[in-house]
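Input sequence (494 aa), recorded before submission:
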Amino acid sequence: MEPLEATTVFLVVCVSCLLFLSAWRKMSGIGKLPPGPVAFPIIGNMLQLNMRNLPQSIHELSAKYGPVFTIYLGSHRVVVLYGQEAVKEALIDQGDEFSGRGKLALADKLIKGAGIIFSNGERWKQLRRFALTTLRNFGMGKKSIEERIQEEARFLVERLKNTHEQPFDPTLPLTHAVSNIICSIVFGDRFDYEDQKFLTIINLTEENNEHFRSALGQLYNFFPTLMDYVPGPHQLLIKNSEEFRRFVLERVKMHKESLDLSCPRDFIDAFLIKMEQEQQNGQSEFNTENLVRSTTDLFLAGTGTTSTTLRHGLLILLKYPDIEEKVHEEIDRVIGRSRSPCMADRIQMPYTDAVIHEIQRYINLVPLSLPHAVTRDVHLKQYLIPKGTTIFPALKSVLYDSREFPNPEQFNPGHFLDENGAFKKSDFFMPFSAGKRICVGEGLARMELFLLLTMILQNFNLKPLVDRKDIDITPVTTFVSNAPKSYQFCVLPR
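Predicted structure, token format:
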């Protein structure tokens, strides 16, 4: 070996050893980072993790390293919170310190810190507060949010009747219905199910969801510099996002031309009025960019999550006809067949309420939540987590806690019923996350799930195409979210 080559090899070995030693020292000891597997330079723990099922890898690591541990996704440091105690201590007891939004490189590239979901600091506080207030006090126009959901539920029922008892995939009907509800809230009106612009934005949304969940999309979050030069579907995200942005800007322009400052019709109107009020504030976060992004955030978050939950819920009911029948009985007793369900009915329907909660618990829609970040150096248990560190709250570890939910791998509405059959709340129920970053649309989603599911079951019996024992309700897991396997079924008028 030539002297120069030997020197190079020696230096590489020395640098590698130093990096290993540095990582090891960082990940152990009181007052230091939580423990975790030794990370390799550049790639971190990627070889030790199953990126196709990261939640499972997290579960396995927790057995070795405990409820708070550190992993490296590429060079990106992540502290994982595992179990209800650790999640509560961080997100609720130290809510302010854990209220930052962790980085997702793909989201950062597309969104650049605007809007509600991926913003931080004062911008996030102002935009979130405004969105919550607007959704909560939805006195816009003539329809409440509940009335808008009921109206869309009736359109959905008509669409399902038009299947004429033939097999169909529920993905599009449910997605269109749920999306139309959020369209009504942010854009002021629903779209016809055949409207070409509506179908286009739904397709863009579905495409981008697939790209985010894809293997290349996940890799981008860990190796963004490299992946910028790699061709693949993740590159289409930018093109699709720009097209969606143009659609929202077009709607904003239409709203400006017909705006009545004394009578806001929807979220865009309310935001435009706020922009008008803050014209003299040079530091205002209420500008066109945050309007477009906040509207997009509400649309995207309000479309995919609830429709996926409903789709998975119907699959579960197909497998368990006895549970479906009990819901039918409760609907017939409390609501009957002659009027639409309303939210006031829910308190008299503990079994249906328990079924909906159990659907959300079982499907574990976002197993690692959206990433959080600590807003300053913070102590958690005996560890020190530096400012800016990304946090993964492992929500599945809370939703599947066997002490709270016996046999958590089994679907059982009894997890939310007491011995008298009354609905039983649980502090372990965190499908919307917890703390300061809990989902802005939680209240809307709860209303949609109850009203849409009860309306469907009020009008139809569900008929599977295969033997019920062959129906697989196990979620398909990705880094981003869970989803049911594709399926078809029939609905029979009751």
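Checked by second reader. The two ends are 83 Å apart (CA to CA).
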